[in-house]
Structures are given as structure tokens and as C-alpha cells.
Design goal:
Number of strands: 6
Low-confidence stretches: none
Strand content: 5-15%
Mean pLDDT: 90
Structural class: mainly alpha
Radius of gyration: 19 Å
Length: about 250
């Protein structure tokens, strides 16, 4: 299987599937989050202002994360550090960058940061699911050779389609978050905690099949970050949160 990474051309300018899918993921995510923001009665103009800062923050963070852990290559090819259309966006960096900028902006506008993380969590994970098909068209983020019946022919061998594994896992988490959103017995922040904990759990195991992992010494960076995230979620949810959030439905815990 050898898909063309270029969807079409405008004159001599190639428009790549990777960029189209990332843009589509952002637009769909904004639409989903906007509906929930309106339902919660949060100022929509202020929310859009937060997004206008947080989305670039997430893109910059995702690229920086990737470049830092591939510095052995990019130090020799510095001009390629900005070529995000070629691939090379790390979701952990996107989450960190987007949350950091989003926190600053919500503090500025006086918006409930934790509640907003619950609102955008389904958009995040759905965007990640859509983005994995950009990896398919770029023929990246694939796994080791295997003879399993669902193996895909990539880079000269039948391999684990790890981008497909993650797509399916992310869709499962997305549906789980939509179900949790209907419940009223959760604390503010539980939906976001489920998102980052659930995603990290799947990513930890899927990463073990990949051939192109970012490395931190002898360890896979994504597995280290995922393990640390899972531990942090457990400590926060079962130790810190019960001591700092009052009991009651989410609508009272802003």
C-alpha cells in the first residue's frame, strides 16, 4: 500500500493530506466544543479568544516536543524544523502547549479552566483520531513486521498498522467521554482526567509496536510520558481531588 501524501495541487503548491486532516480535526473539534460551551452558558467570544491562542500554542508545542527529541537530526537540518506538513507533530507536546496557553488565557478572562478542559477533551481525542490518518498518508507511525491478518504492507513489509490501532483506541475514548458527559455525579475535571489517562494507557502499549519512537536514552519517550501521566491522574483523582473539590454534581464544582 503506497498512498499519495499529496491530496491535490493549487498551481505548483502541493496540498497534503496530513495538513488537510489536521485542519479538519481542528475545525470539527471547535464545532463540538462550541456546542458544549453554549450549553454551559460560557461566554462564546471569550472562549474563541482562548482558542485563538491555545491552538497555535498546541501546534508549536507539538513541533517543539518532536524537534527536541530528534535534535540529532534537526541540528543538522535546521530549516526543516518548520516543515510540519512533512509530519512530525508530537501529541504530548500539543497537549502541554495548548493547556499552558489555555490556562494563561482563562486566567486572563476569568473563565473556569478545569471545566473548559472537560469541554474540550472529546474534541482533543477526536482530533487525535482523525490526525492518525495523516500518518497513514505519510506512511509513518507504523509498527514492526508481523504476519497477523490485519497487517498492512508498508515500507517493504507487512507491519502492525499502529496508526490504525491508535485511531480505534481514540474513537473508543471519544465515545466514553461523550457517555461520561451525560453523568451528573462526577467532579469537574473527571472527563479531562479520563481523556488523558485513557489515552496514555492505550498509547503506552501501542508505542511498543512502533519503529519510529522518539527516544530518551534507551527508553521510548511516549511510554515514559504516558506512564507518568497515568500515575499523576491516579494521584490527582484519588488523593488530591477528594480533599480539594466539594462533593456534588459537576455543575456545582466550577
Amino acid at each position: 500500500m503506497n498512498p499519495n501524501p499529496v491530496a491535490f495541487k493549487i498551481g505548483n503548491i502541493p496540498i497534503r493530506w496530513y495538513g488537510l486532516l489536521i485542519a479538519s480535526a481542528i475545525l470539527i473539534g471547535i464545532y463540538l466544543a462550541t456546542r458544549e460551551v453554549e450549553r454551559e452558558g460560557i461566554d462564546l467570544d471569550q472562549f474563541f479568544n482562548v482558542l485563538l491562542a491555545a491552538i497555535p500554542g498546541g501546534l508549536i508545542g507539538s513541533r517543539l516536543f518532536y524537534v527536541i527529541f530528534r535534535w540529532d537530526y534537526y541540528s543538522l537540518h535546521p530549516l526543516e524544523t518548520v516543515m510540519i506538513w512533512e509530519g512530525g507533530l508530537a501529541i504530548h507536546g500539543a497537549i502541554i502547549g495548548g493547556l499552558l496557553v489555555g490556562y494563561i488565557m482563562t486566567r486572563y478572562y476569568g473563565l473556569p479552566f478545569v471545566k473548559l478542559t472537560d469541554i474540550v477533551a472529546p474534541s482533543f481525542i477526536l482530533g487525535q483520531a482523525i490526525g492518525r490518518w495523516g500518518n497513514f498518508f505519510n506512511q509513518e507511525a507504523y509498527g514492526y513486521p508481523t504476519d497477523l491478518p490485519w497487517a498492512m504492507y508498508i515500507a517493504g513489509a507487512y507491519r502492525h498498522p499502529t496508526f490504525l490501532y491508535e485511531f480505534l483506541w481514540n474513537i473508543f475514548i471519544f465515545l466514553l467521554l461523550l457517555w461520561l458527559r451525560r453523568r451528573k455525579d462526577l467532579c469537574t475535571g473527571d472527563i479531562f482526567l479520563t481523556y488523558i489517562g485513557g489515552y496514555s494507557l492505550g498509547r503506552f502499549f501501542i508505542e511498543g509496536f512502533r519503529t519510529d519512537s522518539l527516544m530518551f536514552g534507551p527508553y521510548r519517550t511516549a511510554q515514559l510520558v504516558s506512564a507518568a501521566t497515568i500515575i499523576a491522574v491516579i494521584l490527582y483523582r484519588f488523593y488530591w481531588q477528594p480533599r480539594h473539590w466539594p462533593k456534588g454534581p459537576r455543575s456545582e464544582n466550577d
